[in-house]
Amino acid sequence: MRASDCPDEIRQILLTQEEIHERIAELSRDIERDYEGRLPLLVGVLKGAVMVVSDLARELRIDVEMDWMAVSSYGSGTESSGVVRIMKDLDTDLSGRDVLIVEDIIDSGLTLTWLAQNLASRGAASIEICTLLRKPSRLKTDLAVKYIGFDVPNEFVVGYGLDYDERFRNLRDVVVLKPEVFGATAADVSDVIEPARKVFKPGLPQAGFSAG
Ligand code: IMP
Ligand code: MG
Predict the structure, then answer these.
(1) Ligand 1 pocket mutation, candidates 107, 175, 199, criterion most atoms within 8 A of CB
(2) What's the predicted TM-score (pTM) here?
(3) Which of 63-72, 140-149, 178-187, 191-200 has the highest mean pLDDT?
(4) 133, 149 in Cβ contact below 8 A?
(5) Which residue from 1, 27, 152, 204 has the highest number of Cβ atoms inside 10 Å of its Cβ?
C-alpha cells in the first residue's frame, strides 16, 4: 500500500520507501564491516520490526541468522513504563552469540533497555541495537544505539511496520496521520502535535526541529 492509497487519512509523508531503502543500504554497509567474520543473530521485535528485518537481512552481504521476540510493555495509554512481559521468546540459545536487536522505533527507550539487559543475561557475546527510527526528544534512558536510521520529531508515525491500532503496517512509506484518524479534531491536538518536519540522519546538523 502506498500513501496515495489512503489520501484521506495521511497528513504528511515523512519518509518514502526509496529514502528508507537507501538508508537501510547505508546501515547495512556499516553492519557488514562491523560483523565481518562473525555470524550475527538478528533479533526482530514483533510486530513492528518485521519490515526492517526483512529489508535489512536481504540487503546485507554477510550471513545472518534471524529470530523473533514479542514483548508487551505495561504502561498508561501510549507511555511505556519499562515493565516488560515476554509474549514470545527466542528459539535460539544466545550463549556466545553476537546479537543485533532490530527495532522499528525507539520512543522512551524503556522497552529496549529492558530487552537488552534481558538478552545480555543469557550469555550473549555482544548485544547491539539497530533501529529505523528514533524520537530523540523522548528518550528516557541512556541506551546505546549503534545503528540509527532516522531521527524523527515527536509525533505518532505509522507505516513500514508501524501501526495505529494494527492498521497501516503494510504502508510502504512512514507517514503522520491526520488527527481525525485518532478521533481528535485538529484543534484538540494542535498543542501536543508539532507541525511535521523533515527527518534527519543522526549525526548530521539538525536544523529544523530542536530536541526537547
Ligand atoms: P518505548 O519503550 O517507549 O521506546 O516504546 C517503543 C515502542 O512503542 C515501539 O516499539 C512501538 O511499538 C511503539 N511506538 C512508539 N512510538 C510510536 C509511533 O510513533 N508509532 C507507532 N508505534 C510507536
Ligand atoms: Mg516495536
Answers:
(1) 107
(2) 0.88
(3) 63-72
(4) yes
(5) 152
